[in-house]
Amino acid sequence: MINVEEWFMIRDLARQGLSITDIAYRMGCDRKTVRKYLAYLDQPRYTARAPQESKLDPFKSYVQQRLDQGVFNCEVLYRELCQRGYDGKSTILRDYVRPRRQAARQQACVRFETPPGQQGQVDWGSFGSLWYEGRKRRLYCFALTLGYSRALYAEFTVSSGMMAFLRCHINAFSELGGVPEHLLHDNQKTVVHSHDPGGAHLWNARYLDFADHYGFVPRLCRPYRAQTKGKVESGIKYIRRNFWPSCPDVNGLDTLNEALRYWLADVANVRVHGTTHEVPRVRLTREPLRPMSVAPYDLSMVSTRRSSKDGFISYSGNRYSVPSGHALSQLTVRETPEGRLEVYAGLECVARHDLASSRHQSIVDPAHFEALWQAFKERSDPDQILLAGPRLGREVSEPQVEVRSLELYEALARGDA
User: Fold this and answer.
1) Is residue 43 very low, low, confident or very high in pLDDT (cuts 50, 70, 90)?
2) By C-alpha distance, which of 73, 54, 53 is closest to 63?
3) How is the beta sheet containing 362-363 ordered, strand by strand?
4) Digit-coded pLDDT (tens) for 217-226
């Protein structure tokens, strides 16, 4: 197929007297093509081909529904379509989503401002890793930004688990001077477990209890729509671009957080904000935050464990001893914010340990096995060797071998015996 300009060139060369062979040579096409288009008296017009059916056609309505919800991740969409019976390739899906993703990026959005004291936005940022307590740990940054004043609180941690998450909230409330009416979060496991197809949320019960304790309402932003909490997203970017390149050499988590506190007080919260054109610390004085008048929230993590027959429980990748009398028992485990592990049988605390700094360790209190060792000593045979350690096991006796004379074996060889 040739375009209109090439058709005119063929016609012009023919008028100049060139043969079909010469025209085909100059145009770089076949002679049959030249002969075909010389036969056209008028400019050739092309009709669009009818679109071919695609395996994606039956699923386009569902894909469009998910795109309207802000889900543009093709891996997520492809996985969901396969669960619904789609047997095509992901390439078709990506070709369909690509122009719609670009169009969505070009859409204008409205900046949403909240009244004083109404909203705070919470998010995590990842900042590589550092050595902590003898091993390499991932480094996270917790950030809370107040919607009206843009006052920012941030803290580095080596965990994004529930205890660290709640502790950072408490530190932020204390530093900012109170609690906003509601907090906007991403869809993380420490806040919400899952979403059902109807749009309802299965909230994390521990976080709801924490929110009730301090009197704020947790809210979720739309999945895959980060601009819903754009204020704290901008705060994370600000930390990454302004503080992180000039922060001192990281000698430890405490040193890093101390430098971050100075930066927040001397730079972040005293600058003229680019959107409000006011100083966040000044606007913070006009935020009617709820004071923290209640007792501090108990951050201890409580769970249950069943002890093994050798007197250990497993917790966070390590083994901790319990008294031998509580082997094969259902026990309550309490991890305290001070880094202690307490084990309870009913209301009685039967064991206390310092949390291990690494994984795959066995933490043993020798007092837990004294009664068992004493019982072994009282009943053991002096002629036997008892093999036992922190993993207490069965008695293993040294095999008794009969001592025989060599003359017996010589008699057996001669056949006399």
Assistant:
1) low
2) 73
3) 312-315, 318-321, 362-363
4) 998 876 555 5
Measured distance CA(182)–CA(292) in Å, rounded: 14
Q: How far apart, in whole angstroms, are the C-alpha atoms of residue 77 and residue 67?
A: 9
Residue 207: CA count within 13 A, CB half-sphere? 24
pTM of the model: 0.62
Residue from 129, 148, 88 nearest 287 by CA: 148
Burial class for 210, CB neighbours closer than 10 Å (0-12, 13-18, 19+): buried
More confident residue, 301 or 108: 301
User: Residues 391, 392, 394, 399: is their CA dihedral positive or negative?
Assistant: positive
- Computed from CA positions of residues 51, 55, 60, 61, in that sequence, does the dihedral angle turn out positive or negative? positive
Q: What Cα–Cα distance (Å) separates residue 266 from each residue in 278, 287, 299? A: 15, 20, 31
Is residue 172 within 8 Å of 144, Cβ to Cβ? yes
Higher pLDDT among residues 298 and 411, named by residue: 298
- Per-position DSSP letters for 370-386, written without gaps between them: HHHHHHHHHH--TTS--
